[in-house]
Amino acid sequence: MAEHEPLNLEGSIALWQRARRVLPGGVNASARLNRALGHPLFFQRGQGAYLWDVDGNRYLDYCLSHGASLLGHGHPAVLAAVQAAMADGVLLSCETEGQLAVTERLLALFPGMDMLRYCGTGTETTWHALRVARTHTGRWGVVKFEGHYHGVNDSLGYSHWPALDAAGAADAPRPVADSAGIPPANDALINILPFNDVAAFERCLREQGRDLAAVIMEPISYDSCGMRPTQEFLQAVRTLTRHMGIVLIFDEVLSGFRVGPGPALGDAIIPDMTVLGKAIGGGMPISAFMGTRAIMETCTPTGPALHSGTYIAPPMLVAAVGATLDVVTQPGFYTQLDALGQRLYSGLRDSLQRRGIKAWVQGVGARFGLLFGLDAEPRNYRDVARQDLDMMQRFHVACLRRGVYLHFVSPHHGYSSAHTLDDIERTLEVMDAALAEIA
Ligand SMILES: Cc1ncc(COP(=O)(O)O)c(C=O)c1O
């Protein structure tokens, strides 16, 4: 593709016009509308680190199914495991020994987690985890941090990227529902706090701790561009939740397996529950919530918190988890993955400096945020909200035209184990040219 010619996206645009007659907005999920282009791309296929659209354009993929395809598209071990499991039955809706063995292996990688249950999506698993935490504690309230994302369910779908004029004071944010249709009565059950603010956290727990069932957080908030907790904040969260009998839930839907074979923070801080999704299925749609025995046994049939469903844990999806575990626990897997990130992040920082563009590269493991207009690590959502989204949009379009796909307006991007060092070098050339164009 010539560097300065506009992309031919006619096929995508024609399919989108057709799709708009039968799908609201012409998409099956609202995030698929590429806001930088004003329409979705229609893809033909994905393989390894690459995507091909219906117009024959090939892209190096840095969206990677919003983080689910950590192993790249169509990893052979995952495909083989799914096919082998399918040969014994597609859905079954029952227990198998294979599922059990994978479950034992998964739990062994998460210190402090005794039991788990599977779900289909991240949205379902955070919602179930909260139901279980409420049952366990007999309380209703929940603390969620501004900028963190836990899916689109009505209990937690608040203040992901709220408009600042609706969000209240920085040290005492108001809950802002992410969607219409969430019952206003739910607002009273959710407390939105600034991340990394020990004083605000202590104040909230002092005032409301006895009504709180759970504190939920992304241990590394890729949904806030890769924002990390300070050590002091983490310690305060763990100590106070334990002291007040509040269930601490780590939402590792994105961060799990991203920086190592298990929890993102290793065993530095052990929560009471962990939820997983995305990477664990090697691209297949499966998620899980896990916790201590006392908490998890509140699930039916041992307890009263209903968790059940026709499509939970089909053997082929659990087999995909097993194959993913095989791959990510191979010696050297994360060393190789990290080497790609180190080159990508340092190369991108060099380009930004050379081009005189102020932007912060927040690379944590195999995913990163790129915040135009910032020159320091973001510590809370209000920092993240200062970024220059117009610049980011122009950067994304400039990269896309040169064959590198970043998804606008996603707060996080990433590479996979299928990317090679050559792919990273090619990406850096593209990003440098894109920065030169938008500078
Ligand atoms: C941290 C986190 N939790 C939950 C979800 C929701 O997952 P899903 O899109 O599978 O419903 C996401 C999705 O991006 C996520 O990043």
Please describe what this structure looks like.
With 439 residues, this protein is of the alpha/beta class. The chain has two domains: 173 residues, Aspartate Aminotransferase, domain 1 (Alpha-Beta Complex); 253 residues, Type I PLP-dependent aspartate aminotransferase-like (Major domain) (Aspartate Aminotransferase, domain 2, 3-Layer(aba) Sandwich). The chain has twelve helices and 16 strands. Strands 4-12-11-10-9-5-8 form a seven-stranded mixed sheet, sandwiched between helices. It has a four-stranded mixed sheet with strand order 1-2-3-15. Strand 1 and strand 2 form a beta hairpin. The mean pLDDT is 97. The structure holds pyridoxal-5'-phosphate. The site of pyridoxal-5'-phosphate has 14 residues, from helix 4.
